[in-house]
């Protein structure tokens, strides 16, 4: 096994936490594909992610993964009623909600939109990583922009090579549809992307979505 790739043992998770605290970047499994993780509060680390992916900093924001709803306090500036309804009904789960970003978040992460996408996932391996690093992580896919998403640690290494600080190997991920994305900063909320969570489920919670 590559020295860069480590099984998700307690020691490897501690190493991941040390890397994140130092402004580094790791790759780790989610419920769909592997993701690139850095602290969302470090503009330099976020900038490295854009560079790794070969993505323009103004192209699209980078979403953030949380370990519990309390993490929202430092990530978002307000939580609308519709966001509360969706969180109560669908979190943890495959739903990314877009909020107005906190002033603590680097503008680079929001790609100039002043908004931030956040997901509270039910994935056990993902939650183990977030617990180890004791905070939220970026969750953009671990691949070059436009390339296929990586479902194994080896695919991550082949795509991004030694530019990563650590790849946590949790085995092959399930792949499939991405998370559903809903913008809760507008009323009624707007469906940005229909993924694992169907539109009918959102309508059953909210009653209406923006056209």
Give the topology:
Elements: E1 5-7, H1 10-21, E2 26-29, E3 34-37, H2 43-53, E4 64-66, H3 81-90, E5 95-100, H4 107-110, E6 115-120, H5 124-133, E7 137-138, E8 140-141, H6 153-160, E9 166-169, E10 180-183, E11 190-193, H7 199-206
Parallel strand pairs: 1-9, 2-9, 4-6, 5-10
Antiparallel strand pairs: 2-3, 3-8, 4-7, 5-6, 10-11
Helix pairs in contact: 1-5
Describe this structure in words.
The chain is of the alpha/beta class and 211 residues long. It has a single domain (5-205), classed as DHBP synthase. Helix content is 30%, strand content 20%. It contains 7 helices and 11 strands. It has helices at residues 10-21, 43-53, 81-90, 107-110, 124-133, 153-160, 199-206, and strands at 5-7, 26-29, 34-37, 64-66, 95-100, 115-120, 137-138, 140-141, 166-169, 180-183, 190-193. It has a 6-stranded mixed sheet. It has a 5-stranded mixed sheet with strand order 1-9-2-3-8, sandwiched between helices. Helix 1 crosses helix 5. The mean pLDDT is 94.
Q: By CATH's scheme, which homologous superfamily applies? A: DHBP synthase
Structural classification? alpha/beta
Quaternary organization: single chain
Spatial strand sequence of the major β-sheet: 7-4-6-5-10-11
User: Biggest sheet, open or closed, and with what strands and sense?
Assistant: 6 strands, mixed
Characteristic key phrases:
single chain, 211 residues, alpha/beta, DHBP synthase, six-stranded mixed sheet, five-stranded mixed sheet, 11 strands, 30% helix, globular
Summarize the structure.
By secondary structure, the protein is α/β, with parallel strands linked by helices.
């Amino acid at each position: 096994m590559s020295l860069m790739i480590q099984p998700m043992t307690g020691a490897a998770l501690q190493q991941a936490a040390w890397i994140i605290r130092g402004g580094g970047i790791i790759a780790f499994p989610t419920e769909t594909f592997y993701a690139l993780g850095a602290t969302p509060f470090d503009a330099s680390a976020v900038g490295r992610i854009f560079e790794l992916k070969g993505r323009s900093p103004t192209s699209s924001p980078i979403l953030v993964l949380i370990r519990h709803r309390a993490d929202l306090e430092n990530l978002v500036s307000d939580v609308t009623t519709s966001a509360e309804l969706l969180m109560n009904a669908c979190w943890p789960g495959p739903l990314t909600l877009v909020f107005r970003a906190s002033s603590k978040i680097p503008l680079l992460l929001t790609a100039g939109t002043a908004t931030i996408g956040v997901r509270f996932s039910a994935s056990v391996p993902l939650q183990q990583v977030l617990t180890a690093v004791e905070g939220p992580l970026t969750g953009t896919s671990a691949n070059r922009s436009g390339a296929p998403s990586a479902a194994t640690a080896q695919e991550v290494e082949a795509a991004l090579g030694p530019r990563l600080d650590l790849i946590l190997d949790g085995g092959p991920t399930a792949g499939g549809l991405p998370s559903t994305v809903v913008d809760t900063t507008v009323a009624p909320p707007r469906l940005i992307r229909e993924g694992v969570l169907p539109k009918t489920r959102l309508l059953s919670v909210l009653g209406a979505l923006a056209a």
